[in-house]
Amino acid sequence: MGFLKDKRALIVGIASNRSIAWGIAQAMYREGATLALTYQNDKLRSRVEQCARECGSELVLPLDVTDDDQIETVFETLGKRWEGIDIVVHAVGFAPREELQGSFVDNTTREGFRIAQDISSYSFIALARSGRSLMQGRNAALLTLTYLGGERALPSYNVMGPAKASLEANVRYMAYDLGPDGIRVNAVSAGPIRTLAASGIGNFRKMLDFNLKAAPLRRNVTLEEVGNASAFLCSDLALGITGEVLHVDAGFHAVALSGAELSDN
Ligand code: NAD
Prior knowledge:
Layout: E1 8-12, H1 20-30, E2 34-39, H2 42-54, E3 59-62, H3 68-81, E4 87-90, H4 104-107, H5 110-135, E5 141-146, H6 160-178, E6 184-190, H7 196-199, H8 204-214, H9 223-233, E7 244-248, H10 259-262
Helix pairs in contact: 1-9, 3-5, 5-6
Bound molecules: nicotinamide-adenine-dinucleotide.
Residues 13-16, 19-21, 40, 44, 63-66, 91-94, 119, 145-147, 190, 192-193, 195-198 line the site of nicotinamide-adenine-dinucleotide.
């Protein structure tokens, strides 16, 4: 069996078979974890149920992370079915499409900023609070997904930049707070991958092309690579790691942006 044998994982954020959460679910299933999946709304339900069939998951629950009652219900349901939870994956992000293009200063509205922060950042804290008692004392791990746009400015990512910056700060504060309970909190900062959420970002194709040329590995990353690193971070192989943002981006974060233009190859 794999390195997640006997682990029980809640995966939040599958919308399609291109979702990063699906890459993570597949890696965790392969390594022996038992999975529960959630779907945001009825439109996504059948797709998530199909994913559940493919990864042996018998628990598929509705969860809109803006609704505290739904969050509570998910953990209550899991508490009745499982003796505890070892892993919670938060692969959720959203900002209104009109905010993800053009001028950051002109296009960022008060409401758009609030929505991006609530869904993409605050919800990670809300999941941790509701799941805490089920995760205590069992080397449990929380994981979220972030992007380099939270550390550096880039065109079109706009209001998601501050949302990811606050999400990464959450990782550190949550790690400090939950450490005494034996709960680790980490993030994977993934390179660009073509998903539903990514399609909302203006210039996304250009981001993919630029990453491919500038990254040390001269390519983009795959769902499988992000899934594998996420599975590792949530496993007992990573028991000494918390409060960390691990870049899985073919090394793009490590080079200056002008590198691609200066390079001979
Ligand atoms: P995706 O569209 O497949 O997943 C986004 C998920 O967020 C969907 O499952 C959607 O249902 C969910 N979601 C949005 N609002 C929600 C709500 N109110 N309640 C519950 N769920 C909600 O896209 P993805 O690219 O797999 O995104 C997953 C995470 O990875 C996001 O945090 C995203 O910012 C991050 N990320 C993506 C990339 C990329 O290039 N695709 C790179 C780095 C980080």
